[in-house]
Design goal:
Belongs to the PRORSD1 family. By secondary structure, this protein is α/β, with parallel strands linked by helices. 28% of the residues lie in helices and 22% in strands.
Length: 238
């Protein structure tokens, strides 16, 4: 990884040195590098505007979700992860009906002390009530460095995955680890209206409709068998 000492000094001079996350990491003697970059509101903007030096490093994308029954969840995943909120409840083993949706920014500010676009796993340090469940993409733990925001989206903090996990343990957070697929790997969604449509197996080639010859109808309400009986009956009467 390239030497970031100069940009780190610039960041500190720009008031990141007093950032509560940076201060917390320093107080716990957890190795990290915090650097300034272009303000980015989304993970896609980070990937496009903040290239990383190492081949095995990655930014994160973060979803702050709310379910009326099951509470609040912060999902931290790789930028190319396919996170399906409709399937997430099943992956987490949540019981009953789930409806995970993006939480309002006001709740984000109240619970994690940051605004939209600035959230990340480090913001869990602000969750004093411990009422937010952190969900971490397992693929992030295979990287050499994980980059995430220290409560602001014009800077990122780079850490080894083991140091990130150590930080979470020190602040009393035990994340739930899930394995997400990659974008493009998920199966195509069924066409609208086909979901509950019964599957009818095709008929074998050359198959013909079976006909019961004894019950073949020749007249309304009559069969050949019935007609034979009537003929015999009429012959006896004559």
């Amino acid at each position: 990884m390239e030497d970031m000492s100069d940009v780190t000094s610039a960041v500190e001079a720009a008031d990141l040195g007093s950032n509560p996350i940076v201060s917390k990491l320093d107080s716990l003697s957890i190795p990290h590098t915090t650097y300034a970059h272009t303000l980015c509101m989304t993970a896609d903007e980070l990937v496009a505007n903040v290239p990383l030096a190492g081949d095995n490093e990655g930014h994160t994308k973060n979803l702050f979700l709310r379910d009326k029954k099951h509470g609040l969840f912060l999902v931290t995943a790789a930028t190319d992860a396919a996170v399906n909120t409709k399937e997430l409840g099943k992956m987490l083993g949540l019981q009953g009906k789930t409806n995970l949706r993006m939480a309002d920014e006001a709740i984000l500010l109240e619970k994690l002390g940051c605004r939209k676009g600035c959230v990340g796993p480090l913001s869990m340090a602000n969750n004093a009530e411990k009422d937010v469940t952190l969900v971490v993409d397992e693929s992030l733990l295979k990287l050499s460095r994980v980059h995430s925001h220290p409560l602001r989206n014009d800077a990122s903090t780079s850490m080894a995955p083991a140091d990130l996990m150590k930080f979470l343990k020190e602040i009393g957070v035990e994340p739930t680890l899930l394995e997400f697929g990659k974008k493009g790997d998920e199966p195509p969604a069924p066409a609208k209206g086909d979901k509950d449509k019964p599957k009818i197996p095709p008929k074998p080639a050359g198959a013909k409709k079976s006909v019961n010859k004894d019950k073949k109808t020749t007249k309304k309400g009559e069969t050949q068998l019935a007609l034979k009986w009537k003929k015999s009956e009429n012959f006896a009467m004559w």
